[in-house]
Amino acid sequence: MDMTAVHMDEQADFAGDRRLVTRVMESVRQKIAGRMLAPGAKLPSIRRFAETMGVSKSTVVEAYDRLAAEGLIQSRRGSGFYVGGRTAPLSLSELGPRLDRAIDPLWVSRQSLETDDSFLKPGCGWLPPSWMPEGAMRRGLRALARADDSALADYAPPLGLLPLRQLLSRRMSEHGVEAAPDQIMLTESGTQAIDLLCRFLIEPGDAVLVDDPCYFNFRALLRAHRAEVVSVPFTPTGPDVALFAAALTEHRPRLYLTNSALHNPTGATLSPVTAHRLLKLAEQYGLTILEDDIFADFELEPAPRLAAFDGLNRVVHIGSFSKTLSAAGRCGFIAARRDWIEGLIDLKISTAFAGGALSAELVLGVLKDGTYRKHIDSLRERLSRAMGETSARLAALGVTPWILPRAGMFLWCRLPDGLEAAGVAQRALAENIVLAPGNVFSVSQSAGGFMRFNVAQSADPRIYTALAAAMGR
Amino acid sequence: MDMTAVHMDEQADFAGDRRLVTRVMESVRQKIAGRMLAPGAKLPSIRRFAETMGVSKSTVVEAYDRLAAEGLIQSRRGSGFYVGGRTAPLSLSELGPRLDRAIDPLWVSRQSLETDDSFLKPGCGWLPPSWMPEGAMRRGLRALARADDSALADYAPPLGLLPLRQLLSRRMSEHGVEAAPDQIMLTESGTQAIDLLCRFLIEPGDAVLVDDPCYFNFRALLRAHRAEVVSVPFTPTGPDVALFAAALTEHRPRLYLTNSALHNPTGATLSPVTAHRLLKLAEQYGLTILEDDIFADFELEPAPRLAAFDGLNRVVHIGSFSKTLSAAGRCGFIAARRDWIEGLIDLKISTAFAGGALSAELVLGVLKDGTYRKHIDSLRERLSRAMGETSARLAALGVTPWILPRAGMFLWCRLPDGLEAAGVAQRALAENIVLAPGNVFSVSQSAGGFMRFNVAQSADPRIYTALAAAMGR
User: Fold this and answer.
1) What is the pLDDT of residue B90?
2) Which domains does chain A show, CATH number per domain?
3) Domain named HTH gntR-type: which ranges (chains A, B) (predicted)?
4) Contacts of B71 in chain A (CB under 8 A)
5) Radius of gyration of chain A (CA)
6) A327 and B217 in contact by Cβ < 8 A?
7) Strand bridging mode B450-454 / B436-437
8) Distance between CA atoms of residues A319 and A323, nearest Å
9) Could you tell me which residues come within 8 angstroms of residue A304 by beta carbon, excluding any fewer than 6 positions away?
10) Where are the alpha helices (DSSP H) in A187-230?
């Protein structure tokens, strides 16, 4: 095809509607995304596509030219246009079942992270900055400014700063988890810890068990690993053991990813009897358990930990400081069986190199600061008060908690009258309120009538006005 | 087998040598690691293994018991011991061809990171802390201690701190790379940036091109992604273009991962003509290029950047501050085509969640500190002096540079008399000197006679004494 000739022929139309060009481009994009046009496939001729779309040939020419400039399609002289040889980059939303973006597991994260202070965020998963130990952080930073030059400039050793690992070892033993400092590896975050362990332990296509409901980012992360995500209904004392056993028989999962204490989103706590049964099943079926314990510091009385019963044999214990100390200075950790540490170090170096000592030094400084324990004590009280206030205000709207958690920041609530949470969340978003609709937490999509509230982010009365309106009350 | 009976029979030996138990355990571990005992396989009977190893039965019993407690093997009542059913976790060293650990791509990283200050590290890939802008870092930390509470406590937005992205956009344009702030995403490090892009752009089994030699961690990282790593010989002006074209035809790689300016390990700089040819080939074969530009600030005169010629169409530009500012405060970045940013954000949140603002604020503070430019100017001079001194001292030992780089910290040198660098490095390590033998950088294992020296880490005269001895001089 002689492009110049076409351009000349249809020149008169070139000033025409940009919208048509965009529509044609969008149509091609969708065909490629939906694999109706596979990589390398020939696009419809300009004449034919113009007829199909009911637009002029020059519109199609311009659309094809612009798509070619973007690299999505390629022109071959005398032959036409072809879909780029490169297959499309990974799209997480294409790896899972196609979901409405409002119940996509990434929705709440992105709304919480991307909206500014003009938004209220009862759906967000962390504390407001004003609830964090600001004074200790400032003292920690001033102390760092006087640290020796290697703390300021150098890489940390692969396992991370030893004095912090020693402190973590002592803290874990308070929860009954026995982990020597050389079984602890620092990471950039709890999420990076889980990601590293998934890389270490699973292959694409492996089955992984999660709770239903579970933290939505577990779903997003496992999707990035191309795991087959299998969910087990969660009860107020942990996963339903009979259904857990059935899932093990049917899917033979490699991993189970959970929170034992202050489960996200329900706030529930594993009971000792469920813990014991899970570990027996894990033993029987060769299952590894990743226990994500990032809410540990919120607890009033320590709940059972799988890693404590198991002694880090089949259980890997994970933590971070993003929820109780600071999300700004990134630091998480893995406690694992000793014979896995070498392999985890190799994998950490290859994919993230060594961490820096700076955030670890800062976390160490804050944890050792005399005021940290006091801060945590008052935080627990403040959360407990907010829990009572939030549940009372929600009750007035007919929104009722599934259980009343012992501690922590989450209330998992049922909406009244069979209302769909996704729709409510979308209407509230239009009023600058970010909510967390139940199905973002549910692999089985069975939590459409639920919503997670963060009691620390739910003080503003405008939330309840907007929620009532979004629920049509 | 009745374990109790065995225990009783051999009770007298139980106080015996722990070393023997350890030796037996080690032998089993090696058999399992080497797949002589596959997952699920039955271990030799206690009697037989005791004979093989020349130890008492009770020693084997204790070794098996301890391995069972570790979960490596399992006891089945009345039947004996079996290798754990769980397949082994990912071992990077098993994914690639089996190499001597001294030329394994992780060797230099681990030696550099794990050895303490009693080691001299001319093989290490970064500057000594005393060469870094310590004063600016301290001022930056003191300023952070006065920042508002959200900078101290909160997550950063998914793309990362906007003022830093704006500054990076301006800095990149000085190198001719046009990237708007919304095309720039901050990451925890340059390595994490490359890792994220590999997840985004390649599937296991995809071919990826690297230079030969190239930065050894490219090899380790691509191995973690199970890429087919294909290398192209590197010349003083970039990769050999004819062989590059041949590799494209033969392997149809999805990605090419390189440094354009101050190439690691050679210190070479891409020429404009090679850049132009590479981009034409990339266009023709649908290749994406990851240009890792972490040494940019060392340059005296700006070299051509692929991302500048290409306009971030087929090229993704990557940077970090670990080499020129601080490795302790982690911060890297990706500049990519706009239509990839959404997908990269989803992937970053799923696998690492949001970054914190703290390290980004610190980097921003230091870059804006009035002394940073001056620091960089004096750093360049200091490196240039060290380059001259190091090459003179190496020349005295018959160790000759492949080229004399225009700037930076690396000297890629040939050893005299066909000496094997791996052996020299191992002998030097015994003298507390970490060297970087050539084949850790070489996919084709054709750099056995080369070694990379970091001129900033090569001032101590003991290095040359030990090197001479290790070379048998």
Assistant:
1) 67
2) 3-83 (1.10.10.10), 99-129+373-470 (3.90.1150.10), 134-369 (3.40.640.10)
3) 18-86
4) 313-314, 337
5) 26
6) no
7) antiparallel
8) 10
9) A260, A261, A270, A271, A272, A275
10) 190-201, 216-224
Query: In this structure, are residues A60 and A49 in contact, taking their beta carbons and an 8 Å threshold?
Result: yes
ipTM of the predicted structure? 0.81
**pLDDT single digits (tens) B184-197:** 999 999 999 999 99
How much helix, strand and coil, in percent to the nearest 5, is found in chain A? 50, 15, 35
Which amino acid type is present at position B75? S
How many C-beta atoms surround the C-beta of residue B373 within 10 A?
Answer: 11
Strands A184-187 and A207-212: unpaired
Count CB-CB contacts under 10 A for residue A161: 22
What was the pLDDT predicted at A44?
Answer: 87
Task: Answer yes or no: do B188 and A352 touch at CB < 8 A.
Answer: yes
The residue among A127, A9, A134 whose CA lies nearest residue A60 is A9
- With tokens 């299998």, the residue in question is A230
d(CA B105, CA B126): 17
B284-341 tens-digit pLDDT: 999 999 999 999 999 988 888 999 999 999 999 999 998 889 988 789 999 999 999 9
A314 touches chain B (CB under 8 A): yes
Q: Dihedral angle at the C-alpha atoms of A445, A448, A453, A459, nearest 10 degrees?
A: 150
Q: Phi, psi (5° rounding) for residue B15?
A: -80, 0
Instruction: For B27-36, write each residue's pLDDT tens digit.
Output: 887 777 655 6
Radius of gyration of the CA atoms of chain B, in A: 26
Interface contact B93, partner A, CB < 8 A: yes
Q: Do B327 and A356 touch (CB under 8 A)?
A: yes
Could you give the percent of chain A with pLDDT greater than 90? 66
Phi, psi of A186 (to 5 degrees): -80, 145
